[in-house]
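Section 3.1: Structural characterization of target chains.
Under the original work plan, the team committed to producing a structural model for every single-chain target entering the pipeline before any wet-lab resources were allocated. The record below documents one such target. The sequence was received from the expression subgroup and is listed exactly as submitted; it comprises 467 residues.
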Amino acid sequence: MQEKVYIYYTNDLHSNFDNWPQVTGFLKNAREAREAENQACWLLDIGDHVDRVHPIAEAFMGKANVQLMNDVGYDFATIGNNEGITMAHEDLHHLYDDADFQVVCTNLHSLTDDAPGWLHSAVQTQTESGIKVGIIGLTAPFNAFYELLDWHISAPMQELERHVAELKETTDIIILMSHLGLTEDQEIARRFKDIDVIIGGHTHHLLRSGETINNTIITAAGKHCAHAGEVVVTWDHNRKQVIDKKADVYEMATLAKDLNTEQTLNELMKKADDMLGEPIIELKTPIHVKWFQHTEIMAKLTETLKEWTEADAALLNSGLLLDQIPAGEVTLKDIHRICPHPINPCVVELDGDELTEIVRASLTKDLTELKLKGFGFRGEIIGKMIFAGIDVKTSWHDDGTEYVKAIYYNGSPLDTEQLFRVATADTFTFGRLLPEIAKSEVKDYFVPEFLRDLLAYTLRYKITSAD
């Protein structure tokens, strides 16, 4: 006798609720269809469901996301870095207190005295016919951030060594919910042949029909729930083994919306607006934002960053502010709309030569006009770099390109061998946007504050209502 086990999943929603009513309808209908056929079915989320870029996630600190997942009827979830490192310790500690689903994150550990009551290192479940399923969850080890928030992420491979061996003895099918990224998932499949299914996320990859390595099928459904995924595992009761695995994804935009979910989102949005209605300042005239020009608001925000981090110098890109700050009452909602990025302040240690290279790179069109997606940045382009603590003198070549003539620190030419503590957005510590920052051996991150918290402070204390 053969039996099919169905797993439906989402990953990397990032609080992008545009397709959420369709996702809800799809998942509910899938479950109803499977239950009508008396077939086993589970609903999973692979993390980064919460993203504080959205006002609902910001106002409710992720708890509204959990409510929406409860409404769908999820069975299991793991956490992504957006749940893990964009909230204060207590906010994550209580994020899933009211979850109707089990949260499995095998490599998340609290550095305080108590672990959250919702946290499971691994879980086991079974079908009505007795097929035993083991589920593991792993999240990406951004310990430079996690440990500042009193969490630790243990090495994924070490956790797998222990838990896969244990589950192999007690279960028939092993499923890994992996918020590690495609490359890591492929390596896991090569090393752990006893894992039957890896459902992935984090790197926003879309595997329409899955990818098989050794005995493991790997799948993922992209980002923002433009797609939701399905995995079908066929178990042979006579042979007592898995005989087939298939994966597929389904496009959400064209599906019918769940009207109750749409109404819930509208209600949550209204509540979020009220919750973010705290006034910051009353402006007589708007504050204009310009991505390619020096503006007073960006200069003052960069000064705030330097002072708040007690750095020698600071630099911020003008593209961080997405819109002008309107005249009249400015609220937390306005601040969130204008600076929605989950980006933390960071201080790196650089010598004068490295700082000079960063200033030069920041003037190039390649950087200022770069349309960046990712690394916490939720805007359009990088924009003009603004500095505090250093005085940058520039001029123009005949071809219209800007270049650095001189850089001064405390009124004297920049000493190329002197070490400086330079504050900036943590965005630049990743990838190769500004390699000198990314390669710095000293990186001090400031959490849980975001740059928008510094923007609110700047407006409160450095801008007058007449400005």
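The chain has two domains: 2-271, 278-462.
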